[in-house]
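Can you give me the bound-state structure? Components:
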Amino acid sequence: MLVAPSILSADFGNLARDVKAICDSGCDLVHVDVMDGHFVPNLTLGPVVVSAVAKAATKPLDVHLMVENNTFFVDLFAPLKPGYITFHMEEEKNPHRLVQYIRELGIKPGVVLNPHTPAESVEYLLADLDMVLVMSVNPGFGGQKFIPNIVEKIKRLAALRDKINPKCLIEIDGGVNADNIEMLRDAGVDVCVAGSYVFKHESYKTAIENLKV
Ligand code: DX5
Ligand code: ZN
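Here's the bound-state model for the whole set.
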């Protein structure tokens, strides 16, 4: 299991310190939640702040766009050279075109599924994706409760992924902790995002180790 702590739960007054700390504690990716106050009812990070995160990070950034106007935001964040950019299927009329565009920029493309969006919606995109991010809470806020029926969706998605593009990673985001991580691994998850679980833990290192199942 790869671990991508979500900096949404970090101490924003000491962001560079916290980003360095999770990287030194063995995380694999640094998950960056970009919210625009339109697609979701919350507003978070722009490229000015994320450039400071990129400077402090020694692991690739995993930029999760929760925005309207995806292409505009891809252009804003691409100069920071993130490892991944993922965007929501629910907000994009031409997801295949945007996947190609992100790849042309030298960034690994991924799509995100809200809790109501079926696994099958990515079937014809899978061959061109590096990641599918499955939301296990409604996007917008950290610290929410895991939605249990997402496990069945992960299993369906994993079956499609194994058939079409075994290299494509399945990432889960929302309500992940040490109690549900083994079940998620067994369902087919490769990468977990964890915000409150990691940042509220007394030791980031222990928290990240607990998720590496
Ligand atoms: C929610 C974000 C998540 C969030 C996860 O919209 O996409 O990345 O920070 O937080 P936890 O792990 O606390 O549920
Ligand atoms: Zn996220």
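A couple of observations. Residues 150-164 form the longest helix (15 residues). The two ends are 6 Å apart (CA to CA).
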